[in-house]
Write a structure and sequence with these properties.
Elements lengths: L5 H7 L3 E2 L5 E7 L3 E3 L6 E3 L2 E8 L3 E7 L2 E9 L2 E6 L5 E6 L8 E4 L4 E6 L5 E9 L7 E3 L2 H7 L4 H7 L2
Antiparallel strand pairs: 1-2, 2-5, 3-4, 5-12, 6-11, 6-13, 7-10, 7-12, 8-9, 8-11
């Protein structure tokens, strides 16, 4: 394990604060465009970012209209909490540990949040979104609305909604 800190990676990669929590930088936006079924507006085929969480910070519950692939790079294991439209909950560990996976996928429309399992140090990952990410298709969760929809997950939602 390297001696690099979260601050090193934030500075080295020129990461900026993300509205869902943590830090990010877009590193790729495809020149190729596609048309999503049911839409007439062209979209980039895919986008990719670096994303970093540190300490007890978390990525608050949110959802997007595209599939998102996460890739582990450095640091502590990252837990990605998911709730689908039916209210089913699962958690995926993004890490290089035997208990984790180096990559995971979050299906479009799934509510999800992320946190460092140990609540210390940092986790550096990449996220690839296809069709490409647009903030107009990004929805931060409203805590009370989600709790009404999924009361069985109220403890988790109280902890990981901004």
């Amino acid at each position: 394990m390297s001696n690099h800190t979260a601050r090193h990676w934030i500075n080295h990669l020129s990461l900026q604060p993300h509205p869902e929590g943590g830090y990010y930088k877009e590193v790729y936006r495809s020149d190729h465009q596609i048309i999503r079924v049911g839409s007439e507006e062209p979209r980039q085929a895919c986008t990719s970012i670096y994303y970093l969480l540190e300490g007890a910070d978390f990525s608050g519950f949110h959802r997007i209209l595209s599939d998102e692939l996460w890739y582990f790079h450095k640091g502590q294991p990252l837990l990605i909490h998911c709730i689908n439209r039916q209210g089913d909950y699962w958690v995926m560990e993004l890490s290089d540990n035997p208990s984790g996976s180096l990559s995971v996928a979050v299906e479009a429309g799934t509510w999800f949040a992320a946190e460092i399992s140990s609540k210390n140090e940092f986790s550096l990952v990449s996220c690839n979104v296809a069709p490409g990410f647009e903030f107009t298709e990004f929805e931060m969760a409203h805590k009370q609305t989600l709790i009404v929809s999924y009361p069985q997950h109220s403890d988790l939602l109280n902890r990981l909604c901004r």
